[in-house]
Amino acid sequence: MRNYLVLILFVLVFKISYSQFNEKELSFTFENVSHLEALQKINSDTDYQIYYLQNWFTDSLIQKKYTNENIEYIVADLLKGTMVNYFLYPPNKIILTNNNNIYSNLPEGFFGKDSAEVQTVSASRKVAPIFYAKGDESVSKSMETIRVGRETGDKSKETYTLSGYITNFESGDPIPDMTISTNDNRLLAVTSFEGFYRIELPIGSNILKFRALGIERTEKEIIIFNDGTLDLEFNESIEQLDEVVVEGDIYKNIEETVSGTEEIDSEESKTIPLVLGERDVLKVATALPGISSAGEGATGFNVRGGKADQNLVLFDGATMYNPQHFFGIFSAINPFSIGQLEVYKGNIPAKFGGRLSSVFDIKTKDGDNSEFKGEASLGPVTGNLVLETPVVKGKSSFMFGARGAYANWILRSMKEESLSKSRATFYDGVANYTHQVNENNKIKATAYYSKDNFSISSDSLYIYDNRLVSLRWQHKFNDKHLSEVQIANSGYTFNIEYERGANNDFDLGYKINETEARINLDYLHSTDLKFNYGVEGKLYAVAPGTLEPLNEESSVEYNSLEKERALESAAYISANYSITKKFAVDLGLRYSTFMALGEQTQYEYEEGAPKNQGTVRDTIQYGNNEVIETYGGPEIRAGARYLLTPSLSLKAGYNRSIQYVHILTNNTTISPIDTWKLSDLNIEPQTGHQYSFGVFKNLDANAYEISLEGFYKTSDKVLDFKTGAQLLMNENVETEVLQGEGKSYGVEFLLRKNRGKLNGWLGYTYSRSFLKLDSEFEEERVNNGEFFPSNFDKPHDLSMVANYKFTKRFSLSANFVYQTGRPVTVPVGNFTFNDAEYAVYSDRNSYRIPDFYRLDLGFNIEGNHKLNKVGHSFWTISVYNVLGRNNPYSVFYVTENGNVEAYKSSIFSIPVPSITYNFKF
């Protein structure tokens, strides 16, 4: 009782002294002086004594003026914007502290919960001060202690946000996929591809563990008093480990709200045996459930039963119209230049638009800004090289990649005479410049170009090329608000040079160009609520066809179709909200508009009549930039996730999308000479709806991932062709195409093993894809207006990718694919006319070619892992199509000498061995 009375007396005396402390009125003027100089002036001009450490303050200058103010007001105002707090100790002492407060009262309950006396001397502050165990044995003496934020009197919040960037000390590069966890592993964060992290920590002392592949394991004591920023640098690990297991994203597949996403690392694809030993992340993507191609030698992808033109391929934010070389056998992107590939096939984020089925978001890696390095490979038909070098050490870098094919020697060495004059070459190059201006601003510029030349047993030379440039500026307003401004331009052209030594030699050309500007912003309202919003605009320019004589002897007359132009724009916003710890939603709204622009000629057709040359009612001339037609509407993106347990979740999603550009093709599969057509007066944009639901589970301490996801898609105004359509150089192309309904549905299963000597995945998809072309006019109706299988309808699709490590240096890889045969249209009868036999064909796609299956094997040899060596080598010995399966690419029928003959074509009908040498320095 006596002790409590003494305490009460002390508090009363303190309060009286405190009130007298501020009685003096002071005046000061500080002109361009530092905080230290201001504090020293108060010390020298008054009888107040201020205690502090000089290293708490920076050299920043202040301008302040005070007239007849008390000392507490002056000190509090001077310390605004710093991490320094103050404590007034009567009669004339001012004690400064870094980050934390000094308290004059003990918290409630300090002497016990039942102590009535304590209630009478409760502190004037309504919350307890922060205490942390300075002498905690769990904290290593060598562990760095970092204080973050400035403690305030308001402790209504129990947790605060710590964020920042983590980089490699030696190179300055961001460290992606680094795990940051508390000592008890209850709180976890993972750095992004740019090295950014954000974690919510309880107020006070926290022990954080930092783990990443190739980086020294580190622990730090973080004492957090308020929201704050902490940028860190870590050294590379030099110790040799028996095995390193990185589990940075172990729960990402469970916890992320957006469903139907896949991430592919370029480095992970090096052990997967592919044709001629060429590493290819896009080919790896087709081994995942829901993604397939029409077959060997087919360009493009089919995602969840969608057409190949319904996929948006982005390369550092710029559109790539043809991401493949040589009819899809090789990727058009140097694999050594890729940092990451993200595929969205389900709930597509609102910031992406313009396609119905999927987004392939490819990002190049930044060059090393600390030292010169490179990577190269040499295979039987291709060679790759990527170089990285610092420009301004520690701040900017340049990356350059080049690749070329030299397959002509193989074609010329074949016994088949018709192939001796064939040629097939391609090359591509990519470069990017990255500059970290300061901690809040980063600039990245990317340029890309590729070109293909091939002529296989024909008189025609096919030439096509891609090019693109993009410039991105990333700006951080503060810890919660980030922005990115991007300008990009991309183009695709193809030419067919027909030369037969006669007078009908010609050059047929096509070109599409796209220019885009985008502003994208991310706002972190809280740990539970995040926003993404922005605007974008695209300007299209299409030269749909140019025909000109190839030489002076040609009788072909010059002809050029009118150019097409259009403006597409959109605004979008999305929110990711964790309603509870178990239930989260991702809601997005995108509103897009499309204006077809002149100068152009459009045709109006008679109502109640099919579109053909004979039903043209009027010809309308539109002037330059005059609006021909406007389309638009809302696009809804919605997803939800519910955690049944920390390792088991349910996800559902819904998408509504609009697509304003179409591919014109009458081939069984799309090819490099297919043309893109803009929506106009007679061709409407496509719309699509997708519903999905899935179950996601991690097993055996996250060593296994298993998922089962179903989807149902509908689409309208899908473009297809009339039988016998002529699409190239047709100024009335709308008379040769049809727009109908599409639908697809399916179930996707994935089992992935992430750890151990044996790793890889097994994927299976059951899906169906149908198209309906109905009309009141017979010539615009296919299969009597009923649904029929699309060209890429393959109900069963099974893939297995596995890698077995015998030792650290030797591993065996396998890749197995099985697919149901693709639908085809076949002759079911014949008739004779003018002494010639002609075929009568079945309903469209009512038969199938034989099923497709292929097994590839590879043996991988790593170089030794000595630290002091010039470079690291990697050998891959592989056999593509080990079983020698003669998988048909297509089946077709022609009339020769009055008879109908059937032909089957295939790309690789024998085992194809290869050996590739990779070297990294």
From TrEMBL:
Location of the protein in the cell: Cell outer membrane
InterPro entries, A to Z: Beta-barrel_TonB_sf, CarboxyPept-like_regulatory, Plug_dom, Plug_dom_sf, TonB-dep_rcpt-like
Pfam families given in the database record: CarbopepD_reg_2, Plug
PROSITE patterns attached to this UniProt entry: TONB_DEPENDENT_REC_3
Domain TonB-dependent receptor plug: 278-354
Main location: membrane
Similarity field: Belongs to the TonB-dependent receptor family.
Any one GO molecular function term: siderophore uptake transmembrane transporter activity
GO cellular component, one term: cell outer membrane
Biological process annotations from GO: siderophore transmembrane transport
Protein name, UniProt field: TonB-dependent receptor plug
Membrane topology: Multi-pass membrane protein
Leader peptide range in chain numbering: none
UniProt keyword terms in alphabetical order: Cell outer membrane, Membrane, Receptor, Signal, Transmembrane, Transmembrane beta strand, Transport
